[in-house]
Amino acid sequence: MKPLPSVAIVTPTWAGDLEHFRLMRCSIEQSMLVALPHYVVVQDEDLPLFEEFRSRPGLTLLSTKEVLPEVVERRRAAARKLADRFGRNFTRICGSLKRVFGWPQWPSYTGWHTQQLCKLKLASELPFEQAVILDSDVVVTRSAAITDFTAPAATVCFAEWKARQTLKGKVRNWVAESEALVGAGRLQEKANIYFDTPFVFDRGILSLALKRLEVAASKPWWQVLLDRPPRRWSEFGYYKAFLMYHTSDNQIDWREPNFSRYVYDTSSPEAVVSEVTAMLDDHEVHYITIHSQASGREDWDAAAYLNPLALAIGCDR
């Protein structure tokens, strides 16, 4: 029997995405990706909520305390308490203050940022050639295949190209910050605007990219990123920029993610169930992202569409 490629799945998650994660994990178990090791990193205070998954075959359950540097974990926990206490608007205002005045420090350590560090830490340290990042809001179909992430003599990187002058908002910020971090010279006319999952990290190339940050700044790579303005840097953006400007053309298989679909409006459970069920029957669809709106941004119960979809996939919730 031909050995499996050296690929692992990595998912950072937290309490707010528990129900989405439950659907994602059971969809993996109904697919060919069940053969891959799955590393799940949960914010430490939320770990008891995820204990039910510890016995799943091939799944390794970790807490942020086990993955993040001690100082980062301590500041993450403090940032979580402040964000929970004062809410999203206060957090957003403090983030804006940090970008303009460099203070307060804590918005740089919220879960959105530290999840990115967890992805980079595991992808660069686990004993696998590739790490496939899958967020909790992804549903894996039975058509998914390990070959979605591998190429015979190159590293796969998913790409959607767009003219640089048309970039807007957060995507424009992520691209610009990433190119600055890698010291890009003459900029390419088009930018890769794919920031979704699945996303593939090559361990060897990622390790080189992180080492470049450390050498240039004389500090740990994770500190370099945390020193950047909050919500302006992207782990995927930095890696893609490194591939673009510091690897040869024949090293990278820039692959369009034609097998992915996205659901943005989840306000009608019936519509979500109908749309996703139809996608499950389409062999050209391998991954469906049902964009979760956690932290109180939804005023409806996600279980209204997650439970019927679990039955459609064949999962016992």
From TrEMBL:
Q: What is this protein called?
A: Glycosyl transferase
Domain of life the protein comes from: Bacteria
